[in-house]
Amino acid sequence: MELTLEHVSKKYKENDVVKDVNVSLKPGVHALLGANGSGKTTLMRLICGLLKGEGSIHFDDIDASLEYENFASHIGYMPQNFGYYPHYTLKEFLDYMAIVKNLNKDYSEKRILSLVKELGLENQLNKKMKTLSGGMLRRVGIIQALLSEPEILILDEPTAGLDPKERIVFRNLIASLSQSTIILLSTHIVSDIESIADDILIMKEGEIIMHGIYEDLIKVIKGKVWEVLVPKQDASSLMKRYRVVKNHNQNNGVYMRIVSDLKPHDEAIAVIPDLDDLYLYYFVEEVAYD
């Protein structure tokens, strides 16, 4: 089972939003990381067939451009913001989504009850959608994407708004699906990526600039991450000259974690890099994840 993208591109007017993406994904969890405007959501919408672009997308021997309905039947998609009818109860909304997905009624009833229980929403079935919290709505979005037991699961910021306990439930659910499902998710929560991703795709200005497992990706910045404790009067100068991942005041100075090709301070010590460091190394001008 394999999802293959070849020369996938998308332009808006003269702007290349997605540029010549070539990637093959097999069952497992693939995390898509990039800054705001890097093209992540556009790429996901291209895969789902919600946007038309250049290039080809295949699921095994199914060509998405020639057999879209067949291709789409294998996909579950959770957009970053999904629409719903606010006056529907949760049960009515999920029943409606099951009809849209052309699911058998007996099957969908069992599937809905199983998923709402797994995601802790069984007590909300008769509540109107408009009364659900943001975290609950994210869980509803995940449930509707999973209704048809898709072989390809596309999740755009699935953990946004979830509290730590809800994120643990989500991670366990995704881990249970990863052996038999191709899962592509975007998230700005590094702990989610480090906990569940089999590999990471880093997207910048519409291109996949890196793709690999966590351990291999951070090797790129080995020897480029430093920690140092400096007098308070020196901290401001370092912040202006270097990419500072973390800094906080201590009684005897300011602790700083810095990403730099060169040693930023005589007292700086090289440390083991992590995903935050990698992100800042490639997206120095960005202040937040998408």
TrEMBL record:
SUPFAM superfamilies: P-loop containing nucleoside triphosphate hydrolases (SSF52540)
PROSITE patterns: ABC_TRANSPORTER_1, ABC_TRANSPORTER_2
SMART domains assigned: AAA
Organism domain of life: Bacteria
InterPro entries, per database record: AAA+_ATPase (IPR003593), ABC_transporter-like_ATP-bd (IPR003439), ABC_transporter-like_CS (IPR017871), P-loop_NTPase (IPR027417)
Entry keywords, A to Z: ATP-binding, Nucleotide-binding, Transport
Stretches assigned to the ABC transporter domain: 3-230
Pfam families associated with the record: ABC_tran
An MF annotation (GO) of this entry: ATP binding
Record-stated family: Belongs to the ABC transporter superfamily.
UniProt name for this protein: ABC-2 type transport system ATP-binding protein
Higher taxonomy: Bacteria, Bacillati, Bacillota, Erysipelotrichia, Erysipelotrichales
